[in-house]
Amino acid sequence: MNREEWNKVKDLFAAALEHAAEQRSVFLKQAYGENKAVLEEVESLLSAHAAPGGLLASIEQPIFDSLIGQRLGPYQIIREIGRGGMATVYLASRADDEFRKRVAIKLLAHGLIAEELVLRFRNERQTLAALEHPNIVRLLDGGTADDGLPYLVMDYVEGLPIDEYCDSRKLSTSERLMLFRTICGAVHYAHQNLIVHRDLKPANILVTSAGVPKLLDFGIAKLLNPELSTQMLLRQANMRAMTPEYASPEQVRGNPVTTATDVYSLGVLLYELLTGHRPYHLKRYTPAELEHAICEVEPEKPSTAATRPEQIVDPDGTTQTVLTPEEVSRVREGIPEKLRRRLSGDLDNIVLMALRKEPQHRYTSVEQFSEDIRRHLEGLPVSARQPTITYRVSKFVRRHQAGVASATLLVLTLIGGIVSTAREAHVARTEKARAERRFNDVHQLANSFLFQFHDAIKDLPGSTPARKLVVEKARQYLDSLAKEAGNDASLQRVCQFRHFRKLY
Amino acid sequence: MKHATKDVTRLLEQLRAGDRNAVAELVPLLYDELRQLASNYLRRERPGHTLQATALVHEAYLRLVEQKDVGWQNRSHFFGLAAQQMRRILVDHARNRHAAKRGGPAPKVVLDEAVVVSDQAAEDVLQLNELLSRLGDLDEQQARVVELRVFGGLTVEEAAEALGVSSATVKRDWAMAKAWLTREMQRERNREPRGVEQS
Predict the structure, then answer these.
(1) pLDDT digits over A237-273, tens only?
(2) CATH class label, A160-398
(3) Burial of residue B100, with CB atoms counted within 10 A of its CB: 0-12 exposed, 13-18 middle, 19 or more buried
(4) How much is the pLDDT for A207?
(5) Binary contact (A1, B138; C-beta < 8 A)
(6) How many CB atoms lie within 10 A of CB A234?
(7) CATH homologous superfamily for A63-156?
(8) Could you give the percent of chain A with pLDDT greater than 90?
(9) From CA B89, how far away is CA A170, in angstroms rounded?
(10) Which of A222, A492, B49, B120 is the most buried (most CB within 10 A)?
(11) What is the ipTM of this complex?
């Protein structure tokens, strides 16, 4: 097959795929009846296209697919129910249990010797085992598969991610807030046990049909326990496992993660539950864009976001959908205006307080966050306020550090310049005044010598030499003063000595 | 470790800026890392499993690149180069296995002495490599798309970025290449009795 034919095959194959399978052969005959070789090639490729599997499938096949139907310890694996970056989750049942209790088994997805992953996984076992709370998924068991990979056995929770649950039940804002407070209770409990979740997002919060929320996946929880945190920090440097859109500014920057991080992620979650929107508007999902959005951009007020249509771009950048205010309020408060009124004020302030960029400006605990929501629900004043002027100024300064610094420097330089110039001027003026005073003093002295002293002694016998001396000295002084006076005509005139010459 | 990370991040940056010399420096770094990972992987692999190339490449990426500083385009370039190296490693490995089985000459590249890979997987890799080379003669870009998707684990969009073509083009190439490879494989299986194959 030559290049020209190959290109024809290519075009025809692509065009044929645009048609439904049963119409393809008709299309081919119409489009390209004459060249038999090309036609046969396309037809044979199309039939291969329809054939399942093949070599590529076996290469791409995930390595644990073969586990289905097999036993892992006492558990019989039923099917895969989820797959994440580091683990695959299976539905299983206890093989030796007559009640056939169903459990979820989380198994490391990689067959790789990724020590970070194994360590993190082992850590999850310890972390989860320490938690006993009605809204946190219970860890039942743990073990090691034949090939040395650790696995976890957890309660199997049948439920919907919280956002889907709320929308499908058309929960009102108040109902959403109450459900959210239950989650806060569970997170607060974990915090009291020195465990930060670090990855709170709708997919990790399932709500059962009975309306009970269950927190899943403390998989990347970091123990605040200092003994373990060093290991964690080391790992963190290599692999920043997090869900970008729910991550806090400190996570994005790789700064220390604290309980305030969960406050932030809960803030993102609440924002979404109340408005149907994310606090950020992302277009390309590049790391740089995410970092900018999370660390720099101030989120819009929930009441504004909920009542504004938004174009939503999928993370893969292909699909775009428009989220309208009507759609958002249909599953909440009915009409956009009602939703806007419900959100503006307290709820705007509460959500934005949790979403502050700096951990220290957020609620100091999840409990406090939850408490503020309670106060709002009961019509009591809440502690969250609109940002004060001082806060905004300090934000502005932090955001535009370089700009503010150079502007400040400029202003300071200007002030400095003005002050020192003024000072010099002042000094100059004082000097000038002092010089003038001295000039006048000398002038007066010379004059008084010349006139009063001279006149007083002129009648004394034998005083001529003295008088001559007096006049001579006075003249010398006045002359030198006249020189000092420079171009100042009035001063010069004062010092003119010429008319005194006639005395002698 | 940290040192290599810095290097790779810098080299990717240079590559994006159009410095082709960066490739010459990147390739050995990638090759070493991937080979190391493959060898670790094979040591703990259970019989009957194929080597999961895409997982290896992702692992190498996590190890070598400081993700925070690397843009989306750089990521595609990394995976594009890594896919090629991964193919090389898998093929070398499969050849060694094949040769060992036949008592042939000592293998040039030894991944690990405790290697366990099913014979079928080794043959699959060799067959795919062979077919890909043939496809490459007919249509270089299609062969490259398969390499990126199968050995590098790139998504359609990432492959498009790495090749500098549109996603639609990659989708078309991928569909046709898959069909072509599947058909050629069927033909070979029909032609040859099982167990005999080229190397």
Answers:
(1) 333 344 567 888 887 777 788 889 999 999 999 999 9
(2) mainly alpha
(3) middle
(4) 94
(5) yes
(6) 11
(7) Phosphorylase Kinase; domain 1 (3.30.200.20)
(8) 19
(9) 54
(10) A222
(11) 0.73
